[in-house]
Write a structure and sequence with these properties.
heterodimer, A: 511 residues, alpha/beta, Rossmann fold, 2 domains, 6-stranded mixed β-sheet, globular, B: 332 residues, mainly alpha, ABC transporter involved in vitamin B12 uptake, BtuC, two-stranded antiparallel ribbon
């Protein structure tokens, strides 16, 4: 190590009740570098970041800043020390203006009044640097999630931190936005700002970081220069054992499964312009597209939360487009929404309650009564089948890790044995171990004759799992890729440009 | 999370004690304290008249639990009560059999609830907004019907006018018995039926409920109709009990009703409700107002004390939740 570390953490420990979040965490960050911290959910990395940001107090251990032991008692103390943090979940005020969000509780004043023009002046350089050109006086809620994330980052950068902590900053960003973010981070590093970067996406960690610290079970297991590590090594460090391939192999088709299909003809609505395609039973079809391209609108139309302006579809049960999610659920069409905390779960309710959502809540057949004993049987069955890790079926959904929460969302649908699976980015914010289990579940859905439509912001996922990939660009279905055309360069090119690259020939392409 | 990563074992029960233990203990404590100072208070006849006095508002509180559980609130309950009672009483004045008039009154209450429900669902407005309007609409229409005078059925020979006042074995009031029966039935409805499950699901997270295929609009409508029908039932029983309905009766009900539900432990944040708690909450309010009289304190103080109890109950609740949240706070 050529220079003394900017910040050092020694033997940090923290527990919540009986749950150990950090056991013995050590970290040493060289100034002017991008230092990544990786680990599965529950490894303690977020707790570590919260301690550094002053939001959480450790039980024991030392923090050494510039060679001096310090105690970071509160978030404002952290800010005074030059530590800024961008949390995974946005902490913004959607109804207020972008400007108001940039200067929360630090509004510049002129003559005792808050000065909007002073605000605009102060944030101008940072916004230019981030390439964020939006209506600053309009409400934040008009911005896309990616832009909101950049607003959050700008807010921290305006305070000119020495150490910038990013806790999974790009979980909501699409590829173009992520690339822009990385350019910004490189610029900040060139200015001498030290960056601590927490992420699940290993490819990106390798693309951006100088050094990597791997954490597991509340301990740091290894720190090394990025150049000295490989992705399999990091994964091994995270889970403590050799891992099989990330994507389980295709399963053999179950015997006696009828051949049925979902046929979509000329469906349009929202950003989506007339799209036609069909998916047969047992097929896993990926949906690729940038945010706002119409992928989520397509899924919403197919599930009945959005009405199609034109077009029709034919489902395996013979019916057309569902008119409401209730109708969809009763016809065996299921949807795993992207934002599981907001749209997928009743967080204060038990796993048992959540798993009964569809069977009891949506369906109308069966008895009018709701027996907790029967719901418990259901929950136990799914907890076992999907290996949901929970204290008990009575534990609230809130107490689960992201991956286990997502399994609960999937489990409630598996209870009714759906024919059509609509999965909207089902592995967002899920740790590597749970991701693999979810991939296996998707394979199983296909093997049992399900029709699977699967959208994802992570291209390797689509390529690793799907039989075909439909690419939507600016509302138009521009490509239907399969076989040899399924490689990341091809898909990436179409996703970002809407055009086929010249040197690739495609099996089929819808104009 | 070392603790949570255990695979699920055969589940232990969630709570060792039912959640209503706290509020029941508070009620018993109050009875003991008042009883030690004024033993007459614990006379069964007095205790049962507490129950009987809680009946009409208590029934509304039971319905209100469903509304808070679905993350809504109905402000118009007092006037649905009044309007249904006025309609039933006017039918009795017109010579209809009081029992039939009562059934018509209950249905009329359900109809008023349907008006609230249809407005909420079609306009996609929260019930608090809609019922703020219908509060005055129902009041106004009721005043038009009764011409601002009490409606007194003149022919009170029917068994209807003695039935609710009757006391089984000389002590147990029939009206109170109906109240308790309704509470038990609706407790089962909330916790053991598909409808009750849906109410809790919608209240816990309306967006997730919709995306799980739960017919959220229908559930909301059903809940508001149920509330209206309960108001109707309470209203027509009141006519039988008092033999008349005053034009302003019901004007101040809603705050007491919501207070009882909150004292009972139903949160305003939705997703959860306790009917037993609401019944006990209403009894606590009754014990306060009649206990004060036993101590010779002016009855006008009871409103203040009731308010203070609400603040006390919610702060205790908040304290417990805070402690629990701090313990359960798990961050990876």
């Amino acid at each position: 190590m050529d220079r003394p570390p900017l910040i050092e953490v020694r033997q940090l420990a923290k527990h919540y009740g009986g749950v150990i979040a950090m056991a013995d965490m050590n970290l040493s960050v060289e100034p002017g570098t991008i230092h990544a911290v990786v680990g599965e959910n529950g490894a303690g990395k977020s707790t570590l970041m919260k301690v550094l940001a002053g939001a959480v107090q450790p039980d024991s251990g030392d923090i050494i800043l510039d060679g001096q032991p310090v105690s970071i008692g509160s978030p404002s103390r952290a800010r005074q020390q030059g530590i800024g943090i961008v949390y995974q979940e946005l902490s913004l005020f959607p109804e207020r203006s972008v400007l108001a969000n940039l200067f929360v509780n630090a509004e510049p004043t002129r003559g005792g009044f808050i000065s909007l023009s002073a605000m605009e002046q102060q944030c101008g350089p940072v916004l230019d640097q981030l390439g964020l050109h939006v209506d600053l006086r309009g409400p934040l809620s008009r911005l896309s999630i990616g832009e909101q994330q950049l607003v959050e980052l700008s807010r921290v950068l305006i305070e000119k931190p020495r150490l910038l902590i990013l806790d999974e900053p790009n979980s909501a960003l699409n590829r173009a936005e992520t690339e822009r973010l990385f350019k910004v981070l490189e610029g900040l590093r060139a200015q001498g700002i030290t960056i601590l970067y927490v992420s699940h996406r290993l490819e990106e960690v390798f693309a951006i970081s100088d050094r990597i610290t791997i954490t597991r079970n509340g301990r740091d297991t290894r720190t090394a220069r990025t150049a000295e590590l490989t992705i399999p090594q990091v994964i091994e460090g995270m889970i403590g054992q050799h891992r099989e391939a990330m994507f389980p192999p295709p399963l053999p088709r179950k015997e006696g499964v009828a051949d049925r299909a979902l046929v979509v003809s000329g469906v349009a609505g929202g950003a989506l312009r007339e799209a036609s395609f069909s998916v047969g039973s047992g097929e896993i079809v990926g949906l690729a597209g940038l945010e706002g391209s119409g992928v989520s609108d397509l899924l919403e139309i197919l599930f009945g939360t959005r009405q199609a302006k034109v077009g029709h579809a034919s489902y395996p049960d013979g019916g057309g487009l569902p008119r409401s999610p209730t109708q969809a659920a009763r016809r065996g069409i299921c949807m795993v929404p992207a934002d599981r905390r907001k749209n997928g779960l009743m967080l204060d309710k038990s796993i048992l309650f959540n798993i009964s959502n569809v069977v009891v809540g949506a369906r109308n057949d069966g008895p009018l009564t709701f027996f907790p004993s029967r719901a418990l049987e259901r929950a136990q069955r799914q907890i076992q089948a999907l290996r949901i890790r929970a204290a008990s079926a009575f534990a609230p959904a809130n107490a689960l890790s992201g991956g286990n929460q997502q399994k609960v969302v999937i489990a409630k649908w598996l209870e009714i044995g759906p024919d059509v699976f609509l999965l909207d980015d089902p592995t967002r914010g899920v740790d590597v171990g749970a991701k693999r289990e979810i991939y296996a579940l998707i394979r199983q859905m296909g093997a049992e004759g399900g029709i699977v439509l699967f959208s994802s912001t992570e291209l390797p996922e689509l390529i690793g799992l799907c039989d075909r990939i439909l690419v939507i660009y600016q509302g138009r279905l521009v490509a239907d890729l399969s076989g040899a055309a399924l490689d990341s360069a091809t898909v990436l090119h179409i996703v970002n440009t809407g055009k086929l690259s010249q040197d690739t020939t495609l099996a089929r392409a819808t104009p | 999370m070392t603790e949570i990563d255990r695979p699920a074992s055969p589940a232990p029960r969630r709570n060792r004690f039912p959640e209503e233990v706290g509020v029941i203990a508070a009620l018993l404590l109050m009875l003991v304290v008042i009883g030690l100072a004024r033993p007459l208070f614990l006379n069964p006849l007095n205790l049962f008249s507490l129950l009987s006095n809680s009946t009409f508002l208590g029934m509304l509180a039971i319905g209100m639990v469903f509304l808070l559980a679905i993350r809504e609130i109905d402000l118009s309950v007092g006037w649905m009560f009044n309007f249904s009672a006025v309609i039933a009483a006017m039918m009795m004045v017109a010579g209809l059999n009081p029992w039939l008039a009562a059934i018509a009154g209950i249905l009329f209450g359900g109809l008023l609830g349907l008006v609230n429900g249809v407005l909420c669902v079609t306009l996609r407005l929260p019930a608090i907004i809609v019922t703020l309007g219908t509060f005055s609409m129902f009041q106004g229409l009721s005043l038009v019907m009764n011409k601002s005078r009490a409606i007194v059925p003149s022919d009170t020979t029917s068994t209807y006018f003695t039935f609710f006042k009757e006391r089984l074995f000389g002590v147990v009031p029939v009206a109170g018995l109906i109240f308790v029966t309704l509470a038990i039935v609706l407790h089962l409805v909330l916790h053991r039926t598909r409808f009750g499950y849906r109410v809790q699901a919608v209240g816990s997270n309306p967006e997730a409920a919709k995306l799980a295929g739960i017919p959220t609009g229908l559930v909301r409508l059903q809940t508001l109709v149920l509330m209206g029908a309960i108001c109707g039932l309470s209203g027509v029983m009141y006519v039988g009990f008092r033999g008349a309905i005053d034009p302003v009766e019901g004007s101040d009900f809603v705050l007491v009703v919501v207070a009882a539900v909150i004292i009972g432990g139903t949160p305003l944040s939705g997703g959860h409700g306790t009917i037993i708690g609401a019944v006990v909450g209403m009894l606590i309010i009754q014990v306060i107002s009649s206990g004060l009289i036993f101590f010779g304190i002016d009855a006008t103080w009871s409103t203040f004390v009731t308010g203070a109890v609400i603040v006390l109950a919610v702060s205790l609740d908040q304290l417990i939740k805070h402690q629990r949240a701090r313990r359960a706070d798990r961050i990876g």
